[in-house]
Design goal:
By secondary structure, the protein is mainly alpha-helical. It has 6 helices and no strands. Helix 2 packs antiparallel against helix 3.
Amino acid sequence: MTRVPPLLPAETLTRVLRTAQLDGATVLILSAFFALLSAAGGHGPLAVIGLLAAGAGSVELHGRGLLLKGDSRGMNWLVASQPLLLAIIYAYCLIRLSDSQLPAVSESLRAALAPSAAQFGLTVEQYLAKVNRISLQAFAFIATLCQGGMAIYYFRRREPVARALEE
């Protein structure tokens, strides 16, 4: 088994900068878009959540900007942006779980779901509420894996990035 040598600090810095640009910009753009949609639909709390998530993307981009200026403190911003975004995602899930009103569902979809609901001894409304709850729990779990993984990714690259910035 051949062992792969660790990346040079400069290559690690390049990869961190690329990752932060892609992740931060994606979070910022998508969150701002969904905030606008929520605001247009009259869902104030969800619009605020979208704006907060866009802010978390901005935190990540700010950290990248500090790194580009040669400031190793940018890594602290990159690491911190991940649990911040995760907390915002959890808040979104809690708001959606606490909302007793489910989105409107067409009659044809209700008719299609009726056999599945009956199989579990539930009404269509109860079935939709259960599917909504399970979906939000799955979303929170996947977000925990993703944001936790990103935080670990950035945290483990602090030293090589600091060395690259010193060179």
